[in-house]
Amino acid sequence: MGFDNLLAGRTRAMDINVIREILKVVSQPGMVSLAGGIPAPESFPLEIMHDLTSTVIDKYASKAFQYDPTEGFEPLRETLVDYLKSKGIKSNKEEILVASGSQGVLDAIGKVLISKGDKVAVEAPTYLGALQAFTPYEPQYIRLATDDNGLIPRSLEKVLDGGGIKFIYLVPTFQNPTGRTIPLERRREIAAIIIRHDALLIEDDPYSSLRYRGNEMPTIQSLAPANVVYISTLSKVFAPGLRIGFCVAPALIRKWLVIVKQGTDLHSSTFNQALAAEYISGGFLARHLPKIINLYRPKQEAMLSALDKSFPADFNWSRPEGGMFIWVEGPAGFDMETLYWKAVEKKVAYVPGKYFYTDPAEGIETMRLNFTMIDEETIDRAISTLAEVIKQEL
Ligand SMILES: Cc1ncc(COP(=O)(O)O)c(C=O)c1O
Known about the structure:
Strand content: 5-15%
Helix content: 40-55%
Strand order of the largest sheet: 2-10-9-8-7-3-4
Radius of gyration: 21 Å
Number of helices: 14
Bound molecules: pyridoxal-5'-phosphate
Structural class: alpha/beta
Largest sheet: 7 strands, mixed
Distance between the termini: 48 Å
Shape: globular
Number of strands: 15
């Protein structure tokens, strides 16, 4: 018996996740995957987990296993205030909401803010997971133009001038999928534009701590705090399986985020939040982060030099100063999805970039490459293989 007739209208409207279908082959034996977007298992601080777990049990005892307030475990919220200060974000613990990953915040944002048909402005391309979080609430996506320096402020201004935008969603630093970072001057312009238009910006920032070169950028939240919901996560600097994300949000929005989170999961795992609190307040994060950076930096350099060495001259790629991704653009019309199946035959997988656009006609000639999961030698080999497949296709 089929239950199709029972599905909600909005469920029917959701695209099946084509990307999942495409990526099924990634787990085939011998496949080298540049497709993932996940941290290397060696980046997890396993060596301290026993001690951290014992500390949590000794320090918090049954409290670590009990129901807890929806807003988050108090010691974690307290320590996040200092952590955020190190990122130039002024907050107090009442302003912080802990969620089950930044994905948990994105879903709550969708639930709180989006009515069917509302206009939500997103970068082209943007983070697919945000689209998956927002799409069930049936928004109309409005495209924001980007270049090598991320969002073009003029495009934002034009979209806001058009009126009726519920919110803007941006990943300003080491964006997923492009790796691009919005430079300081543009951040100032963007902050001034959203203040002038009294607009709401969702700033999603999972990657800024993974900086391999260059100077740290101020968050847009620090330039326009009353207009921004700032979201971040411990997924890339601790362990994603613990599902610890958090946000700092203007009071009214925060109130509603808490109410919808109550309905979703009551609160995020108390035990995991206690681990996170000890990881940050015990100084483990500060000591461990350089190890993660030293693990990823050579991988990224290996990928960039392999691209320089072997990719054709009419291909361009981003040169991010951090994060987990490199974005490649081929000549106009070059179909990276057709190429994908040929690359898979040679045991190399990546993500065709068109899936990160809200307009299915865009991004045909783009691909996202991840470098965190494999060693430098394998990266070099995989990029040479891709280059050969590309040359055959050309
Ligand atoms: C831009 C962006 N936002 C949010 C997330 C979700 O992360 P979390 O594990 O905190 O839910 C990711 C994960 O890759 C991401 O790239």
